[in-house]
Design the sequence.
């Protein structure tokens, strides 16, 4: 919903989420993303081509940006569920006549899960370090920005600036919560079932 508001409010209603001070911006043809255009966007064909380019590029960028986070969460939750299934199968194994055969299968499955978890850690280790470092730096800068804006005596405090900073901070805090929750659920599964 916010994306629709961000992209189409400048086009249809003339409501801007930014300062219109770019020399390439025109009063009648404002694009959602403020950039410097190396060509004249006053013609309709170039304007709509640039608008379509910005929308498609934003969707692709958002998909790539969130794709790694979702992929990490899915992999770790997959390992958690596989551990839970393995633990349930081991508990039910004592009643079966094929005890040796099932034990061999479950030990093999357990080794596969350990290898998969090690691969997840190896692939995402540096990425998560970079994400945590960037989130910490971003939160510090945003908090400093909010403190600076809110402690100022000027009457021209931009409410959009404050709302954007708060929304950005809440998004990063929620991202850290998701990472922590996924990691904690994996640790809980391992400790709970002694795997």
Sequence:
């Amino acid at each position: 919903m916010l994306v629709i508001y961000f992209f189409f409010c400048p086009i249809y209603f003339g409501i801007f989420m930014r300062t219109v001070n770019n020399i390439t911006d025109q009063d009648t043809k404002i694009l959602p993303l403020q950039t410097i255009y190396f060509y004249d966007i006053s013609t309709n064909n170039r304007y709509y081509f640039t608008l379509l380019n910005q929308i498609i590029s934003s969707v692709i960028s958002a998909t790539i940006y969130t794709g790694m986070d979702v992929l990490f969460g899915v992999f770790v939750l997959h390992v958690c569920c596989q551990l839970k299934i393995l633990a349930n199968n081991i508990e039910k194994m004592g009643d079966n006549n094929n005890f040796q055969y099932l034990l061999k299968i479950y030990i093999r499955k357990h080794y596969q899960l350990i290898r998969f978890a090690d691969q997840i850690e190896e692939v995402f280790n540096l990425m998560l370090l970079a994400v945590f470092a960037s989130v910490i730096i971003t939160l510090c800068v945003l908090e400093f920005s909010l403190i600076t804006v809110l402690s100022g005596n000027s009457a021209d405090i931009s409410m959009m600036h404050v709302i954007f900073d708060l929304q950005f901070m809440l998004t990063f805090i929620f991202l850290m919560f998701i990472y922590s929750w996924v990691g904690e659920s994996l640790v809980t599964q391992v400790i709970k079932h002694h795997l």
Q: What stands out?
A: The chain has a mean pLDDT of 79. Residues 78 and 166 are 33 Å apart (CA to CA).
